[in-house]
Design a protein that fits this description.
Layout (H helix, E strand, L loop, with lengths): L4 E4 L6 H13 L4 E4 L3 H8 L4 E4 L5 E2 L4 E2 L10 H13 L3 H19 L4 H5 L9 H6 L8 H36 L3 E2 L5 E2 L7 H4 L4 E6 L2 E6 L17 E4 L5 E4 L2 H8 L6
Parallel strand pairs: 1-2, 1-3, 3-5, 7-8
Antiparallel strand pairs: 4-5, 6-7, 8-9, 9-11, 10-11
Length: about 270
């Protein structure tokens, strides 16, 4: 359903309403935004099929673009409800939608304290920040409506950049899952990738991996507490660099990297 207006609450804002509005900007960048709790404005918006009302108003009715969650503890936050409804427009590549949803789910958990997330947060370092806490930091004098609207605008710009990054990451993860299965595996269980793979360590299937590098080919260790790239790689033809920690080294040619990798103990 097309919309040309978005209404959310005024005063203090949180990650769920900021990210919800930011995602709607990806669906239609030309809508008019109103931040208010005026009951007459809310009622008019709730009855207008071309107005999105989110995180305020006490109604969840996606057919009429009403997305409040406060009246039902079983509902996702405004960000989750908006993504659920508009996901094909926000993240068009279906294979990446599940991964982007993980980011939105984290915002939902903090906004609704699902699974006692605040209890988990209490055991983290006091300086720990997440997307929700960073967005909350944009608030200033909540009694000054004009100031808060301006701060909301700044938070909105920041959230839009984060969404772009998260969609890129989601698409990369989706591509990774597809391409990961195409890797070569040496007899000693070293993985060989023909393209650079950022997330291979997350799988924990291999101790070492070979992949392209800007200067040639690299051998990476998954975890230097388990195993390091040996120093004697410096004796290989076309040796370029070995990180002091032993987590990676670079040689010029792929066949040299693979030959060296075959000498590694990686089970």
């Amino acid at each position: 359903m097309k919309f040309n207006k978005v209404i959310t609450h005024d005063t203090t804002f949180h990650a769920d309403d900021v990210f919800a509005v930011a995602m709607l900007g990806m669906v239609n960048p030309d809508f008019r935004l109103i931040r208010t709790r005026d009951p007459e404005i809310l009622k008019a918006g709730q009855n207008d099929p071309h107005t999105v009302v989110l995180d305020v108003g006490g109604i969840y009715d996606p057919a009429m673009l009403n997305f409040d969650h406060h009246q039902d503890v079983n509902l996702m936050s405004a960000a989750g409800l908006i993504y659920q409804h508009f996901q094909n427009d926000i993240c068009p590549k279906k294979i990446a939608q599940l991964y982007f949803a993980e980011f939105i789910n984290a915002i939902d958990m903090i906004d609704t304290n699902r699974d006692n997330i605040y209890g988990t947060w209490d055991i983290l370092p006091t300086g720990f920040r997440n997307a929700s806490s960073i967005i909350s930091g944009f608030n200033r004098d909540v009694t000054d409506a004009g100031s808060q609207d301006a701060r909301f605008g700044q938070a909105l710009i920041f959230a839009t950049v984060i969404i772009d990054n998260e969609i890129f990451a989601a698409q990369a993860k989706a591509a990774f899952e597809t391409d990961y299965a195409q890797r070569d595996i040496l007899p000693n269980n070293v993985a060989v990738f023909n393209t650079f793979f950022r997330n291979w360590k997350d799988k924990k299937d291999h101790v070492f991996a070979v992949m392209p590098h800007a200067n040639g080919w690299q051998i990476q260790s998954r975890d230097t507490t388990i195993a390091k790239v040996p120093e004697w790689i410096e004796q290989c033809p076309g040796f370029i660099f070995r990180h002091g920690s032993g987590f990676m080294a670079v040689v010029k040619e792929k066949d040299v990297a693979v030959t060296f990798a075959l000498t590694l103990t990686s089970f």
